[in-house]
Amino acid sequence: MTGLNWLVEILKWWRLAVMVQPTSFVQAMKQSLSSLTVSLITPNRIGEYGAKALYFRRKDRSRVILLNFISNFSQMSTTILFGVLGFWWVYESFPGLNLKEINVMKIGLFALTIGIGLVIIGKLWRGFYSKLIRDLQSVRNRTLLDVFVLSLLKYLVFSHQFYFLLVLFGVDLGYLECMSLLSLSYLISSLIPGFVIFDWLVKGSVAVAVFGRFGVDEILVLSITSVMWLLNFGLPSLVGTLYVMAFKFHSANNDSIVREQQKSAVQE
Fold first, then answer.
1. Which of 38, 61, 77, 116 has minimal Cβ neighbours within 10 Å of its Cβ?
2. How far is CA 35 from CA 13, 90, 192, 232, in A?
3. How many CA atoms lie within 13 A of 43 on its CB side?
4. What average pLDDT does the chain have?
5. pLDDT single digits (tens) 196-242
6. Model confidence over 10-53: pLDDT tens digits?
7. CA distance readout (Å), 209 to 184, 200, 223
8. pLDDT at residue 151 is higher than 90
9. Is 195 helix (H, G, I), strand (E, B) or coil?
10. Which long-range contacts (CB under 8 A, 24 or more apart) does 19-24 make?
């Protein structure tokens, strides 16, 4: 399921990258995995935008950033959709359960995120932001639909991966209960800013708060979230490290060639 998770992610980026320049599946894989490696040490995966842009021509980089934003926004939309459904199901199915703290946390973090977003949009409204809006309008609806469907498929893959780990570790909860609690914990954790390298800690803490109300052992939940991080982020980032090193080596060779050409031109 880890392989399927990243296959869908690569296909999603491939669908967007070909809008900028001809891109093969292997190239899309290199761009996705190397950007994951870079994003580990940047807050909220900001490094992913710059890493992918480096693979394209300078004049196309702003469009690449926009397309990557579309990819991430689509994934976030599926998280919000399932998170709201999960919260509604838990609230309706267990009316006696105290979800006040979770509800307040969710609303507060969501409001904070929206507020920060509005401030940023206000700062960028003149100039760059208006250009992004024009570029966004140029993306075909069919492409947006394809990206959303792939985001939906990816969400179903990694959420069921978590569910199967819960079953494997002997958690005694029904399917709908597990999936609803999972979607709720993913929603809350996605609204908390942080570094991907500590994502297991954030998701683990939220999952403990959510699943703990149903009697699931804290150590068990933290173990599962750690395994999920290792499978879906740790191992792919190791592969991405090879691509990052190869990219740096290629860039260094290109710089050496340019310097030699300039030196020869001066001598002539």
1. 116
2. 11, 36, 21, 14
3. 4
4. 78
5. 667 777 787 888 888 887 888 888 888 898 899 899 888 888 888 88
6. 999 999 999 888 989 999 999 999 988 888 877 777 888 888 88
7. 11, 14, 14
8. yes
9. strand
10. 19/63, 19/67, 19/139, 19/143, 20/56, 20/60, 20/63, 20/64, 20/67, 21/56, 21/57, 21/60
Tokens for 179, please give them: 């999936």
The span from the CA of 19 to the CA of 9, in Å, is 16
Pure H helices in the chain:
2-17, 25-39, 47-53, 61-93, 100-124, 130-137, 141-168, 175-190, 199-211, 218-229, 235-267
**Of the candidates 73, 75, 27, which has an alpha carbon nearest to the alpha carbon of residue 52?**
27
Total length of the chain: 268
Residue with tokens 């397309």: 67
Give the CB-side neighbour count of residue 44, counting CA atoms within 13 A. Answer: 9
Structure tokens at 22: 């001809």
